[in-house]
Design goal:
The chain is built from six helices and seven strands; from the N terminus they run ααββββαααβββα. The chain is α+β, with helices and mostly antiparallel strands. The protein is globular and about 40 Å long.
Length: about 160
Amino acid sequence: MAKEKISFQAFLMAVAPEQQAFVETLHHKLLELGCDLVVKEAKSGYAASYQFEKKTVMNWVFRKAGLFARIYGDNAGKYEEVIASLPAAMQNTMTASRNCKRLIDPTACSDTCVKGFIYDLHGETYKKCRNDGMFFLLTTETAKPIADLVCAEVTVRKAALQ
């Protein structure tokens, strides 16, 4: 039997009330940019994935601490000015995340690994794992920077198709 499709509204109702307006606004912006939404049930609630050309750009995932945005910054090197404008705490989260084993050694990690992303910040080059290199708890301080990052990623992916 096919699983019933989970609606954006069902996902949104699981989001903390004070965060719903932001999540909904970003949802509409990502749809305008050409993303598709897929909502699935996960261990810790729903997982909402935004995909552009069938490749995931961002997931919303629930954890004990709250709602997290996982952004797949495949093109991070093309919007370093956005990364440089992030609050220091978000920059620290990115630089402290684990390195991409496969970017450092092509034989490391799994054959199915799509590799992480590379960017420069404060004169240093970082090679980070795509699974946690941009993984941020949604707060009032991180909301706009999360939107800026994911929109920058979609814009670069979109431009590549032109």
